[in-house]
Design brief:
Elements lengths: L1 E9 L2 E8 L1 H64 L4 H46 L1
Antiparallel strand pairs: 1-2
Length: 136
């Protein structure tokens, strides 16, 4: 790339200045790319922080709800056992066994859900930390 400047000095005299501006043009383009890439990285980092924050809060809320449900189920099972434990009726013993199996299965499902939620939280946090490292 060249820049040309023509100046008339007198009626029959002209000064022509020709300059090579290739380096200046390349530098300008490099600065433009740098600003674009920096802005893109900043936007990605902001989106990453927002996503991490929202997903993390959602998962932590779900984990808390899961824990509360397990605690409530455990309390209800204890009350049921006390209520049925006092009677010596065969049908009550059968009901207690069925209820116990049912609650036990639900408790196991809640434990699996809790474990899965923790695993997803760990994955999300690890992935966002990796993105943070890449962009910093």
């Amino acid at each position: 790339k060249f820049e040309v400047k023509v100046t008339r000095i007198e009626k029959n005299a002209v000064v022509v200045v020709v300059r090579n501006v290739s380096e200046r043009y390349r530098r300008f383009e490099a600065e433009k790319r740098f600003v674009f890439e920096t802005t893109a990285r900043q936007k990605d980092a902001e989106a990453n922080r927002f996503t991490r924050h929202e997903v993390k809060n959602g998962l932590l809320s779900a984990i808390e709800i899961c824990g509360n449900i397990r605690e409530e189920m455990s309390d209800n099972f204890s009350v049921l056992q006390k209520d049925l434990g006092g009677s010596k009726n065969k049908s009550n013993d059968d009901a207690a066994a069925v209820s116990g199996e049912s609650v036990s299965g639900r408790m196991e499902n809640m434990a699996d859900l809790d474990k899965t939620l923790h695993e997803v939280l760990d994955i999300v946090l690890a992935e966002t930390m990796a993105r943070d490292v890449i962009h910093e």
